[in-house]
Amino acid sequence: MATVTEVEVGSDPSIRERYKELHDSIANIQDEIKKATQAIELLRKLEQANQLDERKKELLEKSINTKAHLREQVEEMEQENNILEEKLEQQGKGKINVADIIYPGTKIAIGSSLMYVKEKIQRATLYREYVDIRVGVYQK
To answer: In the chain, what is the straight-line distance between the N-terminal and C-terminal CA atoms, in Å?
Structure first.
């Protein structure tokens, strides 16, 4: 019935979840950095044209500080992300032996690799090869 099912082997689910959270957070913060950069550029243009009042000067300073703080956050998160990525790579040695059938809608995770099953898989072994998940001959 294409019911969503998740099968994870070869990694600690809490590490995978933290890895995903960090990835999403980094993307959000990078969007915020982009917005701060745009605000800084606009305020600098106003400053060059001598159209910057006190309120806008404060806003410029806040934007610069915010951008610097966000960059520090991204650097810290990327370091943690790299550590988690290494852990996932080291743990990604699992395999799945399918004695019967895996149905469409199943999400397979081995280490840091993902595969979404689109067609039935019968009597096979799923294993990780580099960054991909491969389907091979069934092994007992």
So the answer is: 27
Mean pLDDT score, 9-30:
89
Convert 44-81 to b/e letters by CB count within 10 Å (16 or more is b). eeeeeeeebeeeeeebbeebbebbeebeeebeebeeeb
- DSSP secondary structure string for all residues of 99-136: EEEE-TTEEEEETTEEEE--S-EEEEEEEEETTEEEEE
- Tell me what pLDDT residue 17 has: 87
- Give the orientation angle of helix 13-48 with respect to helix 54-91, to 10 degrees: 160
3-state secondary structure of 12: coil
The pLDDT tens digits for 50-109 are: 888 899 899 999 999 999 999 999 999 999 999 988 887 776 678 899 999 999 989 998
CA dist 54 and 56 (Å) reads: 5
Closest CA to 91 of 114, 74, 112, 70: 112
Token digits for 75?
A: 């650097």
pTM, full prediction: 0.65
Question: Which two tokens mark 97?
Answer: 């032996």
